[in-house]
Amino acid sequence: RASTGLTSISSQQAGIWVNGVGTVVTEPDITNLSLGVEARASTVTEARDQAAVAITAIVAFLTSIGVEERDIRTQSFNISPQYTFRERLEDGLRTDERVLSGYQVTNTLSVKVRDLDQTGAILDGVVKAGGDLVRVNGISFSVDDPSPLKVQARELAVQEALEKARQLATLAGVGLGQLIFISETSSTPI
Fold first, then answer.
1. How far apart are CA 63 and CA 16, in angstroms?
2. How many CA atoms lie within 13 A of 158 on its CB side?
3. What pTM was estimated for this model as a whole?
4. How confident is the model at residue 175 (pLDDT cuts 50, 70, 90)?
5. How far apart are CA 90 and CA 149, in angstroms?
6. Strand partners, 107
7. Helices 44-64 and 119-130: crossing angle, nearest 10°?
8. Cβ distance 31 to 139 under 8 Å?
């Protein structure tokens, strides 16, 4: 960002202020799956039992192919009533009446797949294990341990900021003093 103009600067703001950006790009090494089951029945017990059978089969499949239990986590569990609306005629007036039609149970898992090449086979197996109740809510790819990448990005950002400061000091005909302040913001784009 470049701008020109005169600005009154207090002594606390005096100096050269620059920013630096460090970007590191890498290939993902894990797949994160959000998947689960959704069961509907006339009673809570029936819906819960159907969901439990399906989710148990999914977890059994995942562990049988080598996904570690620590990489399988429950994301959410929900029981909600389901309603239908039917038209009712009362005293010559038509109104909609809400009628309880049953219950829906959803159970969602977060699964970390450490071998990206297995992702397709895992999804196929999950669908087979859970049957018609399976829901695949999302698939994302990421890096299991971004810490070394953040270190590299910080180094690049500081190098860029120092280079900008040196250039501005030279252009302004002033000496470059000691680094006084650093503020970090970061993001992990997908």
1. 57
2. 12
3. 0.70
4. confident
5. 68
6. 37, 77
7. 150
8. yes
